[in-house]
Q: What sequence folds into this?
């Protein structure tokens, strides 16, 4: 549906796609599907905001820079602002990496333990241990004054890559267990920084990983 609640015109989609594929040297990028804004929703589906961001996309092995894009984390798709201002959805499986300003996202495949899914992951830090975030939004439905209210809810998850294995981090205890060879010093460092996983998940995981990597330099 579009912003008015109407279903998108599929014939119109086809026409736009044909137009995109006639753009010569830029046709490799401008061949997505038309993006339709979410109707009647509280909040938005994007990361980090619902504003157009300056970014770059590695698409079919070619980098495209200085683009106006948005990251739809409900659909896990990149929305690209075409020069004629039509927003289009790029094919996620053809994107290897993309950047939003100085933030790097990479497409990862399911690992041997099925900890990861086929999706984009935000690389937060790398080294002997690396941290990735899965940026997601889900739709929550509630009845308010006899009316169905639909809202976007943020659901972030954090993963630690250590010795070639990915681990989903669900608690500070688990985080320290994964970094057990430096557990005591990391615990002291987090206390000095006044960081606790329950209150600041992202900062705690990233700070612990950075401290761990620094200790091995």
A:
């Amino acid at each position: 549906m579009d912003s008015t609640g109407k279903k998108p015109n599929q014939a119109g989609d086809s026409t736009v796609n044909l137009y995109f594929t006639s753009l010569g040297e830029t046709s490799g990028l401008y061949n997505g599907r038309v993006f339709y804004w979410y109707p009647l929703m509280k909040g938005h589906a994007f990361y980090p905001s619902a504003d157009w961001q300056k970014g770059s996309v590695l698409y079919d092995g070619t980098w495209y820079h200085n683009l106006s894009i948005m990251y739809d984390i409900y659909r896990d798709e990149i929305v690209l602002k075409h020069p004629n201002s039509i927003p289009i959805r790029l094919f996620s499986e053809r994107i290897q990496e993309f950047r939003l300003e100085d933030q790097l996202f990479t497409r990862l495949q399911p690992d041997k333990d099925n900890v990861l899914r086929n999706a984009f992951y935000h690389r937060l830090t790398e080294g002997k241990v690396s941290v990735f975030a899965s940026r997601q939004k889900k739709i929550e439905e509630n009845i308010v004054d006899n009316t169905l209210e639909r809202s976007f809810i943020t659901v972030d998850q954090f993963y630690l890559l250590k010795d070639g294995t990915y681990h989903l981090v669900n608690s500070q205890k688990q985080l320290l267990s994964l970094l057990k060879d430096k557990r005591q010093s990391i615990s002291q460092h987090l206390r000095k920084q006044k960081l606790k996983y329950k209150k600041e998940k992202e900062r705690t995981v990233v700070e612990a990983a950075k401290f761990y990597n620094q200790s091995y330099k």
User: Anything to note?
Assistant: The mean pLDDT is 88.
